[in-house]
Task: inverse folding
């Protein structure tokens, strides 16, 4: 006998969250790509986060995690194209969220980003539906690769905003003085 498990001796408790794989309200109403991904296929996301993402080198962890995730889904090129678009989206999102903190984020930006994120998930779903790499690229080309160019634009725009001294002050994170600085004053 290879496995000798007595299920009566295990003290593991399961609840409905154990098998609750989709958090649809958070998928639909999340503030970004990263949080939307976490709410979708949560058991796989948990496994990817703990066994791939956290064990990877910081500089490539998102790319590597999405590469493993696309391979886990299958070997169709559409999966790889869709999943390997996500690191670009999360890089732009990180830059955007670091430039405009939650308390300094204009309402128009929140609405625009929500629209872009929702349309972006739809855009990436094409790879899952078409599966073929050339068909996916042809469709994305007919849509002018808008998601890829938008994310590149956001990365460049946030870099320019951060380097501009006038906007840097307006959207800068509030720095609270440390205890040592307070004692000195």
Result:
């Amino acid at each position: 006998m290879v496995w000798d498990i007595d299920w009566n001796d295990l003290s593991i408790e399961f609840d409905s969250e154990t098998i609750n794989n989709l958090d649809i309200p958070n998928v639909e109403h999340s503030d970004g790509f990263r949080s939307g991904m976490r709410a979708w296929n949560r058991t796989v996301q948990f496994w990817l986060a703990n066994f791939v993402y956290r064990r990877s080198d910081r500089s490539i962890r998102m790319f590597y995690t999405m590469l493993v995730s696309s391979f886990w889904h299958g070997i169709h090129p559409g999966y790889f194209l869709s999943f390997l678009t996500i690191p670009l989206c999360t890089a732009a999102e990180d830059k955007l969220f670091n430039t405009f903190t939650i308390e300094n984020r204009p309402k128009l930006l929140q609405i625009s980003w929500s629209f872009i994120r929702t349309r972006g998930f739809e855009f990436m779903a094409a790879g899952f539906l078409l599966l073929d790499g050339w068909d996916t690229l042809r469709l994305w080309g007919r849509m002018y690769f808008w998601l890829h160019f938008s994310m590149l634009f956001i990365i460049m725009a946030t870099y320019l905003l951060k380097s501009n001294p006038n906007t840097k002050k307006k959207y800068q994170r509030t720095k609270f003085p440390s205890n040592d600085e307070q004692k000195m004053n």
